[in-house]
Amino acid sequence: MTTSNTTGTSTAQTGTGQTGTAQTGTAQTGTEQTRAEQTRAEQTRAEQTNTVHINTAQVDRFLRSAQQVLPPPDRWPQVNTYPNSLAECIIDAIWSERVRYTNVIEIVDRYRAFRQAQGADADRDGARALVDTFGLGVAAWMEQIGNHQRVYSRDQAPYKAELVLAAGQAALAAGVDSTADLRAGYDADTPVFRDLRQRWLDLPSEGSGISWGRLLLSAGIETVPLDSWLADFASAALGAPVATAEAMVLADSAAPAMGVTGFRLRNAIWIYQHRLARGAHRRPHESDRVAPGPDAPPTL
Fold it and tell me: Is the overall model pTM greater than 0.85, yes or no?
């Protein structure tokens, strides 16, 4: 963040946060190649994004709100990333909705055990390998790897296992088989990437874009949130409407005062807003501090 001597405002650009390495459960650490690809992507987006001007008073208000409702940074849960396994990214993205994250970790672990028994390495599985595991049938897949959770509570809702299969098939139909394919498509904003995004959003109950954002995050791609959670938090903190791009800048600008990267602060806020949406809190207030723990819900 740079401060103008003439205007007294702070200038920053969105997308400058860095992805954290996975530290929870069975997450995988990102490779140097992944970080280099993401750095190039962030630089490209920064060049394409108009500079957003904010003032120090706004940053201070955002910071105070974050400090009030969030636990200390050393108690924030981390985001699991699977830099070399699109299969695990898909499972994580689909299974993360409406469950405790410990359940997601269990499903990923069971998938790894299943693939190990086949003599394969799940941490390098692509969409094709994932789809092939459904050769035993969806019902058997749920028994051996997944569970009988549905995407929402109604009996007619599809099973998450069915959506995992559909997501894998969508990736293949779009021409994306690996996390490398996904990152390359994102970096260049290719027609293949846009096609996959639309196919994913067309999946039953996935139109909100939350699981799509989770997919990208799990693959080591940090994006501007596709939902309004960060903007909602910033709007509440400032007492006025705040656009998503401005909220990104506020988070990046406030993060150093908390000793974290902008990515880590945004992730903590996403988790907080996720819990608000689930009714775990009434409103941003000291009495609503987020309880830490490994079973924190995932982010966008």
Answer: no
